[in-house]
Design goal:
Length: about 375
């Protein structure tokens, strides 16, 4: 997540050091965010061609990279003369002040203004796992509405993992019982998502609304990042908070527990209070997987032959839009049924809906990870009639 101060710093760099007019630099902020170049250090290490693809000006790109290297070198020299390495490590890390609300905001999934007529003609190219993830994330909006987006992404990824392992066993790629069948996670609370039981970890004390006002101050400058950016220790501590802070009236936020990783690392599960550091399915990983997984069917073949950074950027922007279109179609499906059936029934029906629209792939090992076509019209046809 890019903070307001970081944006001010980079804009100051463009106008004062790189000599790029503000009216030229300001419209490029979102593209810089997508390319993860909203810092002088990252610009200094960037390839000139990458910066050129954003500013569409070779001279300006060279000017920016050169200025970034100069300023970065000057700052390093200044730091070295004023503080020892050990002291510099103790300086406030990037994003230290991130609140739960700001973290949730950074996970926001892409949206798009569209109508049903536009969605009907959309065909996407993907494999099955990310489609399961998209179904599960949307379903949880309706069956577990009190859960923040970070929890919904984590729980949905747990569903994908459990389903993938079951499939791997059925086609002979995996053997033996799952970690859950082996007793890992015994005693942990479970929830049912797409008719699968998922072991969870309660995030006692985590309030997704905390710091909402501060997060809203920079919301107009935020753009959902396509790449997964690891949080620093401070922000991860906020996101992973699991300390009991008195009576909590509403159901606490949840993580999906990664039992297979727990078994692999041979960690022993005692109680929720002592479960810090247990492997979970991270929201950032789930979001990154969603954003990169849906190509336009017509552009898939073209994309295989293109390697230039500008073309990749265009393709990536297209994938974000495709995800937004898919989520819009799924939202229309679930919103058509939610007022008329129970949450339990909505959950039970979800897997059969997914099966009806999933991409066709080869049988057995040959189809593992295979991609195919997903028509949004097929999703829309599952909506409740009348």
């Amino acid at each position: 997540m890019t903070t307001k101060s970081e944006l001010q710093d980079i804009l100051r760099f463009f106008t004062q050091d790189a000599k790029i007019p503000l009216q030229v630099a300001l419209p490029k902020v979102k593209d810089l965010q997508k390319a993860n170049l909203v810092s002088i250090v990252k610009l200094a290490a960037a390839d000139v061609k990458t910066v050129e693809d954003i500013f569409h000006d070779e001279k300006a790109a060279k000017q920016i990279v050169s200025a970034a290297k100069r300023v970065s070198k000057k700052r390093k020299s200044s730091d070295a003369s004023s503080a020892s390495p050990s002291k510099r490590v103790k300086q406030a890390p990037k994003g230290e002040s991130l609140t739960p609300a700001a973290i949730e905001q950074s996970l926001a999934l892409p949206t798009v203004d569209t109508n049903i007529e536009d969605l009907i003609n959309v065909s996407l190219h993907t494999n099955r796992a990310p489609l399961v993830l998209a179904f599960a994330v949307t379903l949880l909006k309706y069956t577990m509405p009190s859960q923040p987006l970070s929890s919904r992404l984590s729980l949905a990824q747990a569903v994908v993992s459990a389903n993938s392992r079951s499939k791997a066993v059925s086609i002979g790629l995996e053997k033996g019982p799952s970690a859950a069948e082996d007793g890992w996670g015994l005693g942990q609370p479970k929830v049912k998502v797409m008719n699968r039981e998922i072991h969870t970890l309660k995030r006692w004390g985590y309030d997704a609304e905390e710091g909402k006002d501060a997060a809203d101050q920079v919301s107009n400058l935020q753009l959902p990042l396509a790449k997964e950016e690891p949080l620093n220790d401070s922000s991860q501590a906020v996101l992973s908070q699991s300390t009991i802070v008195g009576d909590v009236e509403k159901e606490p936020a949840l993580w999906g527990l990664d039992l297979e990783s727990m078994r692999s690392s041979n960690k022993i599960l005692h109680t929720e209070k002592s479960a810090g550091g247990l492997p979970i399915y991270t929201a950032q990983s789930a979001r990154a997987y969603l954003v990169k997984s849906f190509s336009s069917k017509s552009s898939t073949a073209e994309g295989e032959d293109k390697g230039k950074s500008k073309e990749k950027s265009v393709m990536h922007t297209g994938k974000e839009r495709n995800l937004a279109l898919l989520l819009s179609a799924l939202d229309l499906l679930y919103s058509s049924w939610a007022p008329y059936i129970s949450m339990e029934d909505l959950d039970r029906r979800s897997w059969s809906w997914y099966v009806q629209v999933r991409p066709e792939v080869g049988n057995g090992v040959a189809g593992w990870g295979g991609k195919g076509e997903v028509k949004l019209s097929d999703i829309l046809n599952l909506r409740r009639k009348g």
